[in-house]
TrEMBL record:
Residue ranges constituting the RAP domain according to the UniProt record: 171-219
The protein's name: Tbc2 translation chloroplastic
Pfam families: RAP
Lineage of source species: Eukaryota, Viridiplantae, Chlorophyta, core chlorophytes, Trebouxiophyceae
Native species: Chlorella sorokiniana
InterPro entries named in the record: RAP
Organism superkingdom: Eukaryota
Length: 257
């Protein structure tokens, strides 16, 4: 999992040795570890189908059980594998069903919690102000916090911070946990970590436009006397949100996708 967080793809020989060790050892904890490895490799786009099948065989060993969070993790891995190999990615039916159920329960549980916070006005000030700034650019298009994105087949994929569902645009307020703090890009800012990159791949594959607002922008805006105006200025000047709204709204009105 550490490799995925740091976006470091292990050598092929290391992956093979890890999978072989899991296959040899007969421990109940191996199922959890195999699920972790499957998620990490899928996140890094470093898992081929034979390796995936071997890992699923370890996870599905007789008598093995996983915590709900591990089942949810496995569902995420399966979604990411489908980006590379289509809908025919093999997985034992009972294991896949239980994993998808755990992932859906986690997503909808988070959504219910967020809706309760919104009703009680207990969401963070940043979330409220960023959503308000997005709404200023959205025109007549609905803006929704905590939206759950579905695939074309109706499968829940993931939850986004702020969405314009009609236009399939996601605005993500990416905190420090989304970045590799000691690995900088050309602009001198931290690079996205593996799971966040995987999130963006999944969204874009399913037709969503992703706008990211990193934590240093949020922190700077919240330190001003007019944070909503500062967030709006950033969205207008340093992202393509306005252009994406205009383009997708025009496409929708003309009946194109």
């Amino acid at each position: 999992m550490g490799c995925a967080q740091l976006s470091l793809v292990p050598p092929v020989a290391t992956i093979e040795a890890c999978v072989a060790a899991l296959e040899r050892q007969d421990r109940r904890s191996n199922s959890r570890e195999a699920a972790n490895v499957a998620w990490a490799l899928a996140t890094l786009e470093a898992c081929d189908l034979p390796t995936w099948e071997r890992l699923m065989a370890v996870v599905a060993r007789e008598g093995a059980t996983l915590a709900d969070v591990a089942y949810a993790q496995l569902a995420q891995a399966h979604l990411l594998m489908q980006l590379r190999y289509g809908h025919s990615v093999p997985c034992p039916p009972q294991l896949l069903q239980r994993s998808q159920a755990a992932w859906q329960a986690l997503l909808f549980g988070r959504q219910r919690e967020q809706q309760q916070l919104l009703q009680g006005r207990a969401v963070s000030r940043l979330e409220f102000l960023l959503a308000a700034a997005v709404a200023q650019l959205a025109g007549s298009h609905a803006v929704e916090a905590g939206h759950i994105v579905h695939s074309g087949r109706g499968e829940p994929l993931l939850q986004v911070d702020i969405a314009l569902p009609q236009l399939r645009i996601a605005v993500e307020a990416d905190g420090p946990v989304h970045f590799i703090r000691n690995k900088m890009g050309r602009d001198g800012q931290p690079l996205l970590n593996g799971p966040t990159g995987a999130r963006n791949r999944l969204l874009r594959h399913h037709g969503w436009h992703v706008v990211e607002v990193p934590f240093w922008v949020c922190n700077a805006a919240m330190g001003t006397g007019a944070p909503q105006a500062a967030l709006l200025a950033h969205l207008q000047q340093h992202t393509d949100l306005a252009a994406a709204i205009a383009e997708r709204a025009a496409a929708a009105s003309s009946g194109t996708k």
